[in-house]
């Protein structure tokens, strides 16, 4: 399917819109094969699939980066469109600000989160899931959460036909100080939203999924037994209320994780402890990056067997035990295609541009 889709996108880029052509022609490639069934985590800052990357600019315009052609285009169906307002089909999605668009099948999906008044005049929230064609048209609502509940996470976890996400009441409108946090799923083929389990409940509680590895969902959550401001004033440590767990997706059994999970990147599990960053492959092989400072918020990714810390500007070829300085000119290493690393640059309007480089151009041996 990937070759078919990319062939269509490449041929169409000089026509009215690459997505206008894709939406018409993708069906000839077989609808059941037209989605990326890889287990992955998508976010607003890294929303990558086998066909490329989706993102929005500072004005909310949805665009697509093609990693084969290195071109960036708006998701739009109109010839000669200026892509400047909501007459363009790349705009007007009103997407929940912390969540990304999701590519699945011949469609894009997104959550909305609105503060409204219910029939009794009481303020509440309304959260819905929508989908559209690949050119941004034919938008429909496919699912709604219960009144007062909203999607509340940064990471969306995709596992074939299922998407996992976190749901909770709006803190500002919840009558109770105790905030319950739930794990939900959406099955694309069945158009079915399901509450899987309650993760936690407490003051300022939160949860964030990290990804799926070896049949288990890795997740971080915190539940506080009193207001966070009180804990801080009393000299308490927020880390004492944080939990790193795994959830067996067959049995729904929750267990403490052996090490704090950073996430799943390029099919491998990344976790940290005081000794460094651990890389675990699907076959059980374990590698340690002992010269990397184990800070979760540093942002680690694995691209083509290279563990990269974008913030530190360092990389580790863990199978060959070699460390490198990343010389990317301020660009982010996001993928590996056609024998080259894909680099992403971002301008002041959050518009992405892409380039490609050989390994020896950006990884300098230490």
Write the layout of secondary structure elements.
Blueprint: H1 2-12, H2 18-25, E1 40-42, E2 48-49, E3 52-56, E4 62-66, E5 71-74, E6 102-104, E7 107-117, E8 123-133, E9 140-144, E10 149-151, E11 156-159, E12 162-169, E13 179-187, E14 192-213, E15 216-224, H3 228-233, E16 242-248, E17 254-256, E18 260-265, E19 268-273, E20 276-280, E21 286-289, E22 300-303, E23 306-309, E24 314-317, E25 322-326, E26 332-337, E27 340-346, E28 352-357, H4 359-362, E29 363-365
Antiparallel strand pairs: 1-11, 2-3, 3-4, 4-5, 6-7, 7-8, 8-9, 10-12, 11-12, 12-13, 13-14, 14-15, 15-16, 16-17, 18-19, 19-20, 20-21, 22-23, 23-24, 24-25, 25-29, 26-27, 27-28
Helix pairs in contact: 1-2
What does this protein look like?
The model is unreliable at 1-36 (pLDDT under 50). Strands 1, 10, 11, 12, 13, 14, 15, 16 and 17 form a nine-stranded antiparallel β-sheet that branches. This protein has a five-stranded antiparallel β-sheet with strand order 22-23-24-25-29. With 366 residues, the chain is mainly beta. Helix 1 packs across helix 2 (18-25). The protein is built from four helices and 29 strands.
